[in-house]
Design brief:
Layout: H1 7-16, E1 20-24, H2 28-36, E2 41-44, H3 48-51, H4 63-76, E3 81-85, H5 95-107, E4 113-115, H6 123-131, E5 136-141, H7 147-150, H8 160-176, E6 180-184, H9 188-197, E7 202-205, E8 213-216, H10 218-221, H11 239-255, H12 270-276
Parallel strand pairs: 1-2, 1-8, 2-3, 3-4, 4-5, 5-6, 6-7, 7-8
Helix pairs in contact: 2-4, 5-6
The structure holds 3-methyl-2-oxobutanoic acid.
3-methyl-2-oxobutanoic acid binds at residues 24, 43, 45-47, 85, 182, 184, 205, 215, 217.
Subcellular location: Cytoplasm
Protein name: 3-methyl-2-oxobutanoate hydroxymethyltransferase
InterPro entries: Pantoate_hydroxy_MeTrfase, Pyrv/PenolPyrv_kinase-like_dom, Pyrv_kinase-like_dom_sf
Amino acid sequence: MAKKFTVSSFQKAKKDGNKISMLTAYDYSTAKLLDEAGVDSLLVGDSLGMVMLGYENTLQVTIEDMIHHCRAVSRGVKRAMVIGDMPFLSYHVTVEDSVRNAGRLIQEGGAHAVKLEGGSDVIDQVRAIVRAQIPVIGHLGLTPQSINVFGGFKVQGKSEEAARKIIEDAMLLQDAGVFAIVLECVPEKLAKLISEKLDIPTIGIGAGKYCDGQVLVTQDMLGMYTDFTPKFVKKYANLNEEIISATKAYINEMKECAFPSKEHTFHIDDEVIEKLY
Ligand code: KIV
């Protein structure tokens, strides 16, 4: 079996200049496929609120939802690191609550690490979770749980002041002990600068090619989620069309009695069935 991808693998990848791959996963069978394909890490993102549960944003996702999906993903994975996203309000109330919720993602969800959004505002929580021996990934730039504060999904860090704040937060998070930072929707040159300043790896999403790794929402990357496609998404497949055409073929065949055919049917001896008439 291939060697597991761990926190040390993140550090080694940055040191050796090897890019880190990350994708989201929310269920057992997809996680199993992505792991088999060799992805380094799987993020059970709170994006599941939109992609799996059909909410408008991530704010309604609960810690129970996250644990449920983390469990399914962990069961499908042999090599990739599983990261559980801490949902809205699971780390905003008290430090004690935050450690308990992070611990639940590990203990009940089977995740290897947790991710949370924010910088200086959540630094006490980050320190406490790290002290509890739980590996943490930070998340800066466009942090979707702050959607109502940002007023929409917009690129962050374009002004000098906003860019400085992201850099300061990144340094703070590194000092607090996070082992990587997701940079979402920030200009490429800012992400490059931050990646050069940090000793820990950056994982970009809409942050250009200079980050130490990349993450995408799997359903976006496979062309399955079509409600909204951000500019930074590249579709590596068009499963949307495949699923619709396969479903149409199934409906047609079953209506015409072409399915199930002999090969998909169980049989009984004629003598036995005749006795039952
Ligand atoms: O929830 C999520 O999927 C994320 C990624 C977009 C980084 O946080």
